[in-house]
Amino acid sequence: MPVLFVLSMFFLSFMPLWICVVCIEVKSLWDGTACPGTEWIALGTIGFMVVLGTLVALKMLCGESRRNTEEYKVVTAQKDTLSTTAYLLSNVLPLLAFDFTLWFDALQFMILFGFLAILCLLHFRCDSNICLELAGYRWYKCSLRSASEDKENITVLIHRRQLNANDVITIRNLNDELYIGRYKKPENDR
Predict the structure, then answer these.
(1) What is the DSSP letter of 177?
(2) First and final C-alpha spacing in the chain
(3) Which terminus of the chain has a smaller tally of CB atoms within 10 A, N or C?
(4) DSSP track, 20-69
């Protein structure tokens, strides 16, 4: 899985935090902080990283959608409804304890955020992203079948509210257990 995609998903998974930080920084600028440079650096960095992360995610999710795909029939599919909420509560919410208008708190935050990024890269964690959820993507634990092979207990990210048994999807591999899927409409629905 491309490292840039994982890092983009990691950064975008903290979108509620970035919105809160932007509000804190704008309020600090509005109140007339003694050193506005810190706030402007934070706002610029967050803005740049959100745009960059979005572009990388879109390229991976949409841009390469037809290459290296395989067609499968869904045997079972179970929607993952807990990982995003658990991720927000366990990783994002505690980071709001930092005062982002102070250099030392910002440095402490960057140290913790860096360690979380390393863990995300080591374990290929990009499955709890509120931005993907809002864009209509869903995570499913699936068992799939094709003419040549079966795939058991894999995770598929697909732009579909409901994935049912006997649906036909095309998937492409991100890593050993994580796939991006695309729903294939039945011939009579086209």
Answers:
(1) S
(2) 32
(3) C
(4) HHHHHHHHHHHTT-S-HHHHHHHHHHHHHHHHHHHHHHHIIIIITTTTT-
Cα(52)–Cα(47) distance, integer angstroms? 9
The answer to whether 38 and 152 are in contact (CB under 8 A) is no
Lookup result for tokens 């440079």: 37
Q: What are the φ/ψ torsions at residue 24 (nearest 5 degrees)?
A: -65, -45
Distance, CA of 10 to CA of 124 (rounded, Å): 10
Tokens of 143: 């068992």
